[in-house]
Amino acid sequence: MKDTDIAIRCNIVTISDDDVPFEEKTIIDHSSDEISTEDAAVLLKAVADELQNETYQFYVGTSYRHCLIWDRGQVVELTPPHDVLTQKIGQYLPDDPGLREMMIRSYGILKDHPINVSRRQQGKNPANCCWFWGAGTKPMLSSFEEKNHKRGVMISAVDLLKGIAIGAGMEVVKVEGATGGLHTNYEGKADAAVKALLSDGFDFAYIHVEAPDEMGHQGSAERKVQSIEFLDQRVIGRVKEQMEHAGADFRMLIMPDHPTPICCRTHTSDPIPYMLYDSTAPKNERHLYNEEAGKESGIFIPEGYKLIDRLFGAE
Ligand SMILES: [Zn+2]
How many whole angstroms separate alpha carbon 301 and alpha carbon 287? Predict the structure, then answer.
């Protein structure tokens, strides 16, 4: 990115295809039923072929999450699509005429695209509109290593997390089959972290699993429970087992970045529960890990970014 570039998130979303003016349409799904990256790339190219120019460049990301770079743009206010699900879109469209126009035109380009014709036949939500949100400038982050005196890796399907890591000078490990969805490669992520720690000389591995958040946005209690069970067994359990097997001392910090309650299908700013596990600490107590247990512990850390100091034992 140039210093004068603005990066904007570009979701490929599902809006209602009823016969009403664009502004009257409803946003149905911020993730187009977790569209595959492969299909999304074809759709984004169709959009870019019509709309891309020297001012606006589209970049393919993962699944429904893509990026627009706006040359000499502005950090305009935009609405996250997952915050307004099931609502009429008119009042949430960008005020900026250029972005607004592109959203409207993207619907015209995508609605009858062969990929969407076949998605409808398969009973899937069509990926029929670009939705811009989250405008920002190039981040100026301090180096993770200089700050913490640890070498770190990021393991995530989500470009936002990878971007933060790259900005902080961390290594990004690519895991085949990591999708950011419910059926991601959990074992692959766990194994990548263990390899980074035990074989590649890293001190810190950040495993990010998007599924519990996504299932919250989808409003499915059943799939959310499933995603947490997968995370527990196929990531946390697997990492713990392999680290123990190797005879390594380690600490593990387990936490969400924010709640995404089923009831509201979007992020809330309530405190989140965390669990800090130390393989060398005596294990004569059983601890539950949930919101209630977190509340009862009486421990409250108002500044979440300070938690990492506890993980590294600096506090
Ligand atoms: Zn989310």
Answer: 19
Residues 6+ apart with CB under 8 A from 260: 212, 213, 216, 217, 266, 267, 268
Question: Which of the 8 DSSP states describes residue 180?
Answer: S
The CATH code belonging to domain 144-311 is 3.40.720.10
Please, are residues 101 and 109 in contact by the beta-carbon 8 Å criterion?
A: no
Distance CA 52, CA 57 (A): 5
Q: Which residues contact 252 (CB under 8 A, 6 or more apart)?
A: 236, 239, 240, 275, 276, 277, 279
- The residues spanned by each domain of the chain are 5-136, 144-311
> What's the CA-to-centroid distance between 280 and ligand 1, angstroms?
34
Distances (CA, A) of 16 to 24, 71, 83, 182, 241: 9, 31, 16, 24, 47
What are φ and ψ of residue 277, in 5° steps? -105, 135
Q: What is the pLDDT of residue 315?
A: 55
Distance 36 CA to ligand 1 centre (A): 18
Closest CA to 152 of 313, 310, 308: 308
Per the prediction, the chain carries an average pLDDT of 95
Residue 293 CA to ligand 1 center (angstroms) comes to: 23
pLDDT of residue 313: 87
Residues of the chain with pLDDT under 70: 314-315
Q: How far does the centroid of ligand 1 lie from the alpha carbon of residue 31, in Å?
A: 11
Q: Phi and psi for 206 in degrees, rounded to 5?
A: -100, 110
Task: Tell me the whole-structure pTM to 2 decimals.
Answer: 0.79
Quick check: 32 and 87 in contact, CB under 8 A?
A: no
CA 178, chain centre distance (Å) = 12
